[in-house]
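<amino_acid_chain>
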Amino acid sequence: MVEEKKELAIEVKGVNRIFPVAGGEFQALKDINVSVPKGSLAILKGRSGSGKTTLMNIVGTLDTPTSGEIWIDGQSTKKLSNKQKEILRRTRMGFVFQAVSLIPTMNAFQNVEFSLRLAGIKDGRKERVEQCLKMVGLGKRMHHMPAEMSGGEQQRVAIARAIAHRPSILFADEPTAELDSATAAEVVKLFQEMTKKEGVTILMTTHDMGLMDAGDMVIELENGEQVCQKD
């Protein structure tokens, strides 16, 4: 029986990233080739300084490779203007960072709704915000302020905010770094559920060895080089 080939959400081809430094240059990424099927939870593994965040920033069009090419949902980002990249990020990508960065003067509902406003979505906002907050287990906390929430709850709001506009790809950079192990496991379980319920592709960086088995695939970097990709 021939296995059906899955469509790719992310394709990285021969990517290098070189930064100028005093007296020369530093190569942060060296000939990276990565393929992530749609609807997958891909874990980007590596120690601090391995190039994880640099690669995520490039795939998320926040940075540009020195050479090589990125494909998002079959579309090359190579010739996109800065404005086109901005639209791509606002409409088809979501971002969750280690620092939660909720707006402190807005409650959970307002924080999530704000992302829909940024994406230019006008219809069905109330229903979608409520759906996302219920999905992350905060249906009864949606009118609480960030200061009234635990770190884990704030991260859940950040996740709801990142997926509210129905992105095809969610980038999560060390989203569990500030959480205890039990809360971190809950966040990763939530990511697993989202790939199934929302069909979103998630690329998550972590150095937590306890989370490696949670992904559909693991991409490992070491000193800017790709050590392996395990599906």
Notes: The chain has a mean pLDDT of 90.
